[in-house]
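Worked Example 4.2. Consider the chain below.
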Amino acid sequence: MAVIHIDGTTVEVDSADNLLQACLSLGIDVPYFCYHPALGSVGSCRQCAVKQFQNKEDMEAGRGRLVMSCMVAPGDDMYISVTDDEAKAFRKSMVELLMTNHPHDCPTCEEGGHCHLQDMTYMSGHSRRRYRFTKRTHHNQELGPFIAHEMNRCIACYRCVRFYKDYAGGEDLGVYGSNNRVYFGRDKDGQFESEFSGNLTEVCPTGVFTDKTHSERYNRKWDMQYAPSICHGCSAGCNISPGERYGELRRIENRYNGEVNRYFLCDRGRFGYGYVNRDDRPTQALERINDKHVKINIDYALDETIKRIKDKKVIGIGSPRASLETNFALKNLVGFDNFSTGLNHQQQALVNKCIEVLSTEGVYNPSMTDIETHDAVLVLGEDITQTSSRVALSVRQAAKNEGLKMAAALQTQPWLAEPVKRIAQDALSPVYVIDVTQTKLEDISKVSVVATPEDITKLGFKVADEIANFADDLADIVDPQAADVSAETDGMQALAQQIAYDLIQANKPLVVSGSSLSSTALIEAAAQITQALTQKRAAIKATEQQQVEVHNAKVQAAQAKSANDQPEEDQDLSAKPNKPETGVNTEAQDDVEREPAENLELKEVNKKYHAQAGIYLTVPDANSMGVCMLGGQSVEEVLATDFDVVIVAENQLTDAIDANKLTQLLADKTVIALDHQLLDWHKDVDIVLPAASFAEADGTLISAEGRAQRFFQVYDNEYYHPMSSIKEGWRWIHAVHSSIEGRDVDWTQLDDVINALIVTHPKLAGIKGAAPDADYRITGLKIARQPRRYSGRTAMRAPISVHEPMQPKDLDTGLTFSMEGYSGKETPSSMIPFANVAGWNSPQAWNKYQDKVGGHLKNGDPGVRLFDQLERLATRQYVAPEAMSSNTTDLQQGQAKLVPIHNIYASSMMASRSPIVAEQLPVAAWRIGIDDAKDWNIAAGDYLAIEIDKQQITLPVQLVGYLAEGCIGYPVGQVSIIHPSMPASVRKVDAPVTMMGSMANDMINDNDTAQINAAPTTTQEV
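Applying the procedure from the previous section yields the following structure tokens:
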């Protein structure tokens, strides 16, 4: 900490921060452009100038110098001024200089209203344009359907390339030109390749990069209604602020959570919301009459549903995409023994294994922010860039910790971005990536290996064994690269030794794995590595502690002896001259080499060396953890029971069970579905009840970290569409349940559902603390979902009525569907709908809600870590499977071995239903490694027909550089392969013939029973 003086006020600040960060953390407004809390300082915009004085006397005399506050570290007794006239004039002149070529097009710019440039220009006092000459102009680029480009607005702050290239690892955004014609863009038109390109819309302080998905139906930020929400795209649990206007989602913005996503989202989470706005969504209940779905009103739908399930054997199938509350309501209706999690046996076993591991004594699962502090990472069998992208971004930051260590050794602050980069050069912390295919983390990996799932598992257990065999003293552990490697040591063993060495030597190691390869043995291997690491590192810490205590005892004893038994210098002896005749030379005696005395300095235990190793396990869906912690049978088990009626809540059942098997199992059964989408298997459903999407409902999700978080309703659909019957899933279910039992509806609020849930499921009691109750108020006010300047409420409903009705009432939460209500920095962190403070309208307004800039939110970060509260399971040892399948693809024998290949968009059922995202889906194809293709005489574009689980799929071949040897990769989400480990046959076939007109229709009619899919882009209708 450092005590500094700012404009006559003495304050204490963190000396590890820069001066700009310290001022902003204190609530002092200092304008800036190039600085970003996640990117550090480069001092290029010169906008954050303050005056620094040598001492108090210089300050009183006005003798000081201008410094860029983002480049200066606060020191004790430092005197600075933010309000000094010279500093203010300098900042004003700099923003005027930056604006000379700016088009001043705020009325037509989509960034207007949440623009950092607007905020900082106003803050700097620049209000009159004096430049009257020709402005330089640029041609804009076409950057795909997600990002719009308007280069003329650029002020050359360099934030975009620093985020895209340095932070996110992208390669296709660069800086071109020089001087006053510097250009930020791609070398040619085209969509950005990075999974994090959408963050450019928030990182850019101007309107150079804007959200094109919002452009078609654009409105200003102050005319948007927001709610605090959680991304449903994957299991990471990122916090988002969805914005609504006219009863439709218009955009998704990042919502800050210091423990989870902080400032950034992936593109799936930011742009994959389009399924909420689909025109074919069920907004009214549907009943199947004469094989056609007919709309019915809400009362008839309830009566008909009750009639069909009363006195019948009813089972319920939940969903890992539905909220805990909806799953619990269904479980409560059908009975705990008749409820399924909505996962098949294999899927449920994988998630349950993850829960088991994370609940075990001595196992620590870090948050995504904590991942960034680890300095050695092993990614075992998980392509996290595609399955959990935001986790991959955190791993990228972890790789930079070696450079930060090197900078710290040279006393360079970590926020000095360019000096740290120059010091580090290409030095990275060790990151090992082991997967079935080449991943996008290869550029930061020390070693990237492609192997079969069985070999990855085998390698994992070998790493654990190598760790267990290490000595308990770090000094005795030899680097395998420096040791003599036996000729008998195979490549896998050598790799295991090197991985084990780097993990044990690191200060804070991490293992990342997950369920994407459908292998519980792989998850056990990751757990065994983590446990072996923690046990060995604890032993090393104990050894070090013992050595330090022994050494310090010797030092203290020697110091005590030297203090009490100091010999006096013999003056006479020292003064005796050399006597050549005696052959004694005192100078020669002084030159005699002697053994150095033992260092008498006290030692300390290395506090940076953590005994605890971390493990992060990804799971497929937003609430996979939640529904499995709630408990239930697998889909196969519950469908194998004797039942008359099945109720399915928000589940794409064909992801868990083959479509043909599902049709057979549901034949002659009553099927009732609650969903916000019309899915392919719904054609045979008797009643479809329109459920609310995440934008129209409140609920709780549990992320892969085990963090329970609340998402809130963004808007009331009925306000814009009075004929709509959309209700939260738990409301539909409880209304039916209450009517069957002949009692009044007693779950009138979300709190009622949560209270009932935690009574019967005490392990989930922590979800109660995920957000305040419905009666929460600040100074008697609910929290406003809308900014103060919200307008047009009457016009929005003009087609329905020219009279403005009362705003909808939110009975479930402490939020209000209005601008009337509390809006400020005292809002509980889990209930902040948007970031907006006087003078700060851009995403940088999150600074005002943080305890310190870039730190945690003032009222604590949202969410409750459930695994930290659960009673821990006893530590167990996982053992490698004795016999692992080693089958491989053999085209001559017609045998195929399949491995899953994930894509950030195609692998997500909901994201792929968003029309804009659907345009970006790659053509479904079999992936084959180049070497295997040569051996099998396969060329790119050839067609293979693969038969698995009684279905045949025909796709073209796409050659890739690296894929597990002897394997064929299939596109997850684009073909319906549920059990890839089942025996599969393969044969080469001719390319499908595409026909037009009546001939094509005749062929379709003749072959409507054939189970052949040819080169689809998605299994959903788009």
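The CA atoms of residues 353 and 703 lie 15 Å apart. Confidence is low (pLDDT under 50) at residues 997-1022. Compare this with Example 4.1 before moving on.
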